[in-house]
């Protein structure tokens, strides 16, 4: 209970600073054209802020700024790519409506393809960014009264304004999130994940093994070399029945010069194999005995 009360002031501080991100991001883009401007600015502001607040360690040192850059760059580029794809699809299908394509069909294709493309972009946090950008572009162009003979110029006006506003909002949102997030993180003793956000999905190499595989308290990770005398040698995983009898999950078999990841039951265990496995902690001694060649109870 005491620990929870101690955390509360920090959580309240995060909520206040988060509200500053929303207000500042919206204020900076309120005059920009298009529905997407305020949405994009607030969304990416939240994303940058949450990423910085969640960092285990943070300071103004170059090393920590480098770690922050590693976190932000993939998400910045992925968000920009999703936005660009949505805007382009909106332009294409809205133009088709001016040449006879039903508006309903164009809207369906714009939304569906924007979502699908965004979903395939590695590092993208939300597919809705691409969808909203696409349908806003589609709506603005499809509402034009007509295309003249110079239809490319007719198209360039609304498309150019929306692209400009959207990507300027993207930049301003990141800027607000980084500045406010950095100030907030300097006052926190460590990274906080008290606020649920998809921004906290860090790269695997920055996360602990226990966080990645969700180990229970009663399980351990072991890497053990198989000896020539082990009764497991020259038998398949299915034959030795480690999972069935002892609850052992073999994650990989390191066998120079290669590694067998997620081995199957038919894979044969050979002397000098390095077995990487997750197992109940109370079975650790049994496994060590078996891999070294001493059969318990014999």
Keywords:
Alpha-Beta Plaits; 298 residues; elongated; 4 strands; single chain; 2 domains; four-stranded antiparallel beta sheet; alpha+beta; disordered N terminus
Work out the helix count.
Answer: 10
Count of strand segments: 4
Q: Widest sheet: strand order?
A: 1-4-2-3
Shape: elongated
Helical amount among residues, as a percent range?
A: 55-70%
Cα end-to-end separation:
51 Å
Supply Rg.
Answer: 27 Å
Uncertain ranges: 1-5
Q: How much of the residues is beta strand, in percent?
A: 5-15%
Number of domain modules? 2
3D structure, described in words:
With 298 residues, this protein is an alpha+beta fold. It folds into two domains: 2-204, no CATH class; 208-292, Regulator of K+ conductance, C-terminal domain (Alpha-Beta Plaits). 59% of the residues lie in helices and 8% in strands. It is built from ten helices and four strands. The chain has helices at 2-29, 35-54, 62-97, 103-120, 128-142, 151-186, 209-213, 237-240, 242-246, 284-292; strands spanning 219-225, 249-255, 258-261, 274-280. It has a four-stranded antiparallel sheet with strand order 1-4-2-3. Strand 2 and strand 3 (258-261) form a beta hairpin. Helix 2 (35-54) packs antiparallel against helix 5, helix 2 (35-54) packs parallel to helix 6 (151-186) and helix 3 (62-97) runs parallel beside helix 5.
């Amino acid at each position: 209970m005491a620990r929870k009360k101690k955390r509360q002031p920090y959580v309240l501080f995060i909520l206040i600073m988060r509200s500053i991100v929303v207000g500042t991001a919206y204020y900076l883009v309120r005059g920009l054209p298009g529905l997407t401007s305020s949405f994009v600015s607030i969304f990416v502001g939240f994303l940058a802020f949450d990423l910085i607040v969640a960092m285990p360690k943070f300071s103004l040192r170059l090393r920590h700024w480098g770690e922050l850059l590693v976190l932000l760059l993939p998400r910045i580029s992925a968000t920009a790519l999703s936005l660009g794809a949505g805007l382009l699809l909106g332009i294409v299908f809205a133009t088709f409506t001016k040449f006879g394509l039903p508006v309903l069909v164009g809207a369906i294709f714009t939304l569906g393809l924007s979502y699908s493309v965004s979903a395939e972009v590695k590092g993208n946090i939300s597919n809705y960014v691409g969808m909203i950008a696409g349908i806003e572009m589609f709506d603005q162009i499809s509402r034009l009264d007509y295309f003249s003979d110079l239809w490319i110029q007719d198209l360039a006006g609304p498309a150019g304004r929306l692209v400009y506003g959207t990507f300027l909002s993207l930049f301003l949102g990141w800027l607000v999130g980084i500045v406010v997030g950095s100030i907030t993180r300097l006052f926190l003793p460590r990274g906080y994940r008290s606020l649920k956000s998809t921004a906290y999905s860090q790269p695997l190499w920055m996360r602990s093994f226990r966080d990645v595989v969700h180990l229970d308290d009663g399980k351990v990770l072991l890497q053990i070399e198989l000896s020539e005398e082990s009764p497991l040698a020259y038998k398949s995983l299915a034959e030795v029945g480690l999972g069935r009898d002892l609850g052992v999950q073999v994650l990989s078999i390191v066998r120079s010069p290669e590694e067998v990841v997620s081995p199957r039951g038919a894979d044969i265990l050979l002397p000098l194999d390095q077995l990487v496995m997750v197992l109940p902690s109370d079975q650790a001694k049994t496994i060590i005995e078996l891999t070294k060649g001493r059969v318990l109870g014999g």
